[in-house]
Amino acid sequence: MEEEAMGLEAYDSLDPNGNITIKWDIMSWTPDGYVAVVSIFNFQRYRHIQAPGWTLGWTWSEKEVIWGMLGAQTTEQGDCSRFKGNIPHCCKQSPKVVDLLPGTPYNQQIANCCKGGVISSWIQDPANAVSTFQISVGSSGTSNKSVRAPRNFTLSAPGPGYSCGPARIVQPSKFKMMDRRRETQALMTWNAACTYSQFLSRKTPPCCVSLSAFYNKTVVPCPTCSCGCRDNTTQPGSCVEGDSPHSASTSAHPGKDSFTPLVQCTSHMCPVRIHWHVKTNYKGYLRVKITITNLNYRMKYTQWNLVAQHPHFDNVTKVFSFNYKRLPTYGSINDTAMLWGIKDYNDLLMQAGPMGSVQSELLFKKDKAGFTLDKGWAFPRRIYFNGDNCVMPPPDAYPWLSNSTSRAVIP
């Protein structure tokens, strides 16, 4: 029942099978334990792990210790006073492990390690959707019958939000040799799956959506208090005015506690705002402009992505300055798409300030059978930023189409 409840709480209709799988492959036995390769696979379509990266934890079933590691390290050594001579890397009953940083000496590395804990989403960059480290375990079982799997896995990525199930014995992993002519396999393999819940991750939404259109002068703002309410009387310093002399210095020096947003003072108080503007109505196409603005002075977003649900994504013909991929949801229905930045061009969304925004334009080919500008059709149903659902304006607030502008078509 507990696992079923966890699954329901973490269910994402746009990525129903998404999870992070921890694979624990025992590669060899040692006199007092074993050597294993631990891999963290991100099988989520659009949710990635950004800097400062993942932290993986567990509780040993017995009194195991970690003699050594490659590609990662524990955050604490713990009490190893019972050992004489060689001292283990970690003696804690519940260790916490982090990835090593880029530039780590080669003799401390292993394949797919040392990226500072950053793991891409499965669609955005599948080659970098895995992180791996090697661990030498002692005071453990030394055979398939006597060894015990770790318990109570935890995953911080980098904050809360993930719930992990128990490690289960699965078919041993198989590995191709360099010449591709021989295959080896692990002596034993455990898998543990971790699923994400936005409700566990944060108490308030991290983003909101505003709307506008060429046919209406009204700009529909993010709903008031979408991510919190502005209250400088009881909580002074909870936000920064955009024209404040302190805003530039705050952006240049984001501070140590980058997990607690320091946002620009707005009516919605969201760290990120997405603006969807219906820009131009051509005879055969509709042009839409998307602007993503970072209003958080303490965080920049690496490898950001945006997922949007719109009834006409099946007819997108051109996307400018963003990467784009459709995400089939139900059978042949293609109403969902993922957008993300181009590497080394706009894949980094800087802190709040003059450089804290990215934008793109989309060209939709009109489908005469289903196209209309009426009743908010041109606006998205849902928008996700970095895998989290953004607060949308209510449908009755969408820019209204008048009869005079409905015929404003550019050849």
TrEMBL record:
<keyword id="KW-0325">Glycoprotein</keyword>
<protein>
    <recommendedName>
        <fullName>COBRA-like protein</fullName>
    </recommendedName>
</protein>
<dbReference type="InterPro" id="IPR056900">
    <property type="entry name" value="COB_C"/>
</dbReference>
<dbReference type="GO" id="GO:0052324">
    <property type="term" value="P:plant-type cell wall cellulose biosynthetic process"/>
</dbReference>
<dbReference type="GO" id="GO:0010215">
    <property type="term" value="P:cellulose microfibril organization"/>
</dbReference>
<keyword id="KW-0732">Signal</keyword>
<dbReference type="Pfam" id="PF04833">
    <property type="entry name" value="COBRA"/>
</dbReference>
<dbReference type="Pfam" id="PF25079">
    <property type="entry name" value="COB_C"/>
</dbReference>
<comment type="similarity">
    <text>Belongs to the COBRA family.</text>
</comment>
<feature type="domain" description="COBRA C-terminal">
    <location>
        <begin position="207"/>
        <end position="399"/>
    </location>
</feature>
<dbReference type="GO" id="GO:0005886">
    <property type="term" value="C:plasma membrane"/>
</dbReference>
<dbReference type="InterPro" id="IPR006918">
    <property type="entry name" value="COBRA_pln"/>
</dbReference>
